[in-house]
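input
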Amino acid sequence: MSEQTVTAAPSKTVAVVNAFVAEHGDPTRAVIQYMGNAGVRLTLVGSDGALGDVVVADVATAEAVCAAVDGVRVSEWDRETVAATVIGPEHRRKMAGSRARR
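output
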């Protein structure tokens, strides 16, 4: 008989994702991206196109967070998800970092 391990979603992470959904709308898409030893990034795309992210320890934790929050749908970086993102000038400057200040 095999044992199944249930991973609990960290309450602070669930609170952050709940706040994102409340601010940016339901449904929110969540893309789970493994980053190696650094953990797993859970990139959020709100129904208004806003981007957000949280980093958790592993894929099981990311999936547990998604399951714990109403209004979150696990997605991939497919055509619909990419098209749903709205990247404004402020976010582009932030991503450009020091290059934008030259």
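quick obs: The longest strand covers residues 28-34.
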